[in-house]
Write a structure and sequence with these properties.
Radius of gyration: 21 Å
Largest sheet: 2 strands, antiparallel
Order of helices and strands: HHEEHH
CATH superfamily of the largest domain: His-Me finger endonucleases
Distance between the termini: 69 Å
Strand order of the largest sheet: 1-2
Strand content: 5-15%
CATH architecture of the largest domain: 3-Layer(aba) Sandwich
Shape: elongated
Structural class: mainly alpha
Helix content: 55-70%
CATH topology of the largest domain: His-Me finger endonuclease fold
Length: 113
């Protein structure tokens, strides 16, 4: 294969990858939801619609990211959909209501409401 043929073949592969990237991303999302959480895309969409496409905690909307699936790490049960900030926050506090309450108390002590 000549260098020209090789470059032409690479260009074709890049074009095909670009044309199929949306379909590959959709399939990867579908597989990820099913494997990690046992959800179909339709079930995720129903939960999102029931929450008015907002975070279940802060009610915020982030158009740059999909809402994260929040689940109980012990049982795997899906609790709802959260924005990145809320999902990271409760995860960082080990999903512990006691730690979350302690953090809220700490913030109130220093004038945050």
């Amino acid at each position: 294969m000549t260098q020209e043929q090789h470059e032409k073949r690479l260009a074709q592969q890049r074009r095909r990858r670009a044309e199929n990237s949306g379909a590959r991303a959709a399939e990867a999302r579908k597989q990820n939801l099913k494997y990690k959480f046992g959800l179909s895309v339709e079930e995720y969409d129903r939960i999102s619609a029931a929450q008015d496409h907002r975070c279940a905690i802060c009610r915020g909307v982030d158009n740059n990211y999909r809402l994260a699936v929040d689940h109980d790490h012990g049982t795997g049960q899906v609790r709802g959909l959260l924005c990145r900030g809320c999902n990271t926050g409760i995860g960082g506090l080990k999903d512990s209501p006691l730690l979350l309450e302690a953090a809220a108390s700490y913030l109130r002590r220093y004038g945050k409401s």
